[in-house]
Amino acid sequence: MLMTTVSPAMAATAEMISARLERLPMSRWHIKARVIVGAVTFFDGFDQLMIAYSLPVLTPKWNLTPSSIAWVIAIGGIGMLVGALAGGWFADRVGRLNVIIASLALYAVMSLGMAFTDSLMLFLVFRFVQGIGLGAEVPVAASYIGEITKAHKRGRFVLLYEVIFPVGLVMSAVVSAWVVPNFGYKILFALGALPILLLPLLWKLPESPRWLASRGRFEDANKAMTQIEREITDRYGKTLPTPQPLPAVAVDVRRGRFIEAFQGVYLRRTLMLAAIWGCAYFVNYGIASWLPSLYHSAFDVSVDTALHYSIVTSVAGLLGCVLVAFLIDNLGRRICITASMVLCSSLLFLLAATGADTATKVLFWSAGSALFVFAVNMALYVYTAELYPTRMRAIGCAIGGASGRLGIIVGPLVVGAILGGGGSLTMVFGMFAAVALIGALVVGFFAVETREKTLEEISQ
Known about the structure:
By secondary structure, this protein is mainly alpha-helical. The protein has a single domain, classed as Up-down Bundle (Growth Hormone, Chain: A), CATH 1.20.1250.20. It has helices at about 10-20, 30-60, 65-95, 95-115, 120-145, 155-160, 165-185, 185-190, 200-205, 210-215, 220-235, 265-300, 305-330, 335-355, 360-385, 395-420, 425-445, 455-460. α3 (about 65-95) packs antiparallel against α4 and α13 runs parallel beside α15. The longest helix has about 35 residues, at about 30-60. It comes from Rhodococcus oxybenzonivorans. Keywords: Membrane, Transmembrane, Transmembrane helix, Transport.
């Protein structure tokens, strides 16, 4: 790949920004930034299952068929796909926080639109546009968190931030199980406007110093870095060590381009990530979005009970995310992701082989598979952000996120096609098991390990 020649002073400045970030001790400032930006991810988790838990009510309201249910689910994923690609492109040009703030506002406004319409067509339009906001903000948020974090124990730090996502899933299950039967689905969607409250907190955060330096804005990068250092030292009483020079790296201040993700060393990384993102989200969302409706329609379980069953699956997924956060820096990214996908596939094969003929059997085995596939979804956020240089990190995360959104679109549609064509639940879960196994093989053979390396080292 061609590199832009820059002066030694610029290179030294870029290296110094990274060195200053790497020498920062983990502090309450990091936790504050992680929680504020992580709240964005919370609402991603909250939103992804709100539609699933509303479907038992929306289906009779609009006389939805299995095929139309699949499209109600998938339309949000299509918006997320568009948003992920557009958000990554804009974030590498106008900044991480600018895209996060704009996307969050768009998501909140569209949630209100979904809450106050009785038209199926308008509901779908609002859900599509809401998906654009949601798809843009989540991968960019992952880029920001990865860029303010040092190499040592980066996996644990980033994933503990990402655990807010499955917490959102659990909260969505708990809140939906109470709100939908008692107050209706409209109140549930109105809650999606709450992220507006985060905007003042996001405005106070500094832009990513690594991104500013990658754009050649060294003065702004120094100001952002000084703001972080001052807050850590003054407010939290920390003493900062002297920055240690990092290994020399080539500095390229060109704007990142999508095509570069498919060139040179990044081609293999991008194709591997696209495959595992697609497989993991195909399985995760395909199962999770359909479960409440399946419990209700296939096993004649009440709406109340179906929603409570779904809480179990979400809690299992949360446990998997916590486990991978504490294992990923010790075992490494490749082992954690590969092993989790193999175990997820095994449980789904067992469910298919024993016959998915009772609600409790589906609940038990699907909860087990959720534990592992949720862990993969979380691990991918930290892993994807590590595999690209700062100037094109958001683009790389956007491609991964878009591949995941493609899985979100296709998974529910395939389930709808199988069930609409007279297929059985055994066929559905057997298909999910095969897709999970494909994801495991791709990562096992083609992934590169990144633990305990600085972002600058990995990007070479």
